[in-house]
User: Fold DUF1491 family protein from Methylobacterium aerolatum.
Amino acid sequence: MPRLRSDFWVSAHLRRLNDGAIPAVLRRRGAAEAGAIFVKIDRLDGSADLYGPAPQSLMAEAEDLGERRFTALLTGATPLDVEEKLAREIRFDSDLWIVEIDDREGRHGLDVAKE
Assistant:
C-alpha cells in the first residue's frame, strides 16, 4: 500500500491533535508528496523532545500498512538543542516539514518505532 502524502498526513495529524485539545501548529511546510516530517514537542517546562522519521530498518512493516513511523531523536533536551538539531536537518534536507506541539505531558499521537 502506498504511503499517504506528507501534506495529507500533516493536515490529518494536526486535526487529530487539535481535536484532542493538544495545541499544535505547522511550523514549516515541506515537499507535499514525500517531505520528511519532524515533530517538536515543547513541554513548557524548559525541556523539549524531537521525533523524526524512523530508520528504514524499522519501516518495512509500517510501509506495508501505508503508515508513517517515527523515532525519538532527542528527549528531555533544551528547546535550543532541538532547534539546533532542526537547523542541521534543514541544511541536509530543505524539503522537510516541522510540526510543533505544546504539551506539558508530551503527548504527540505518533506511531513510534521500537528498536
Observations:
- Helices lie at 6-19, 60-64, 79-92.
- The first helix runs from residue 6 to 19.
- The chain has a mean pLDDT of 90.
- The chain has one domain: 6-102.
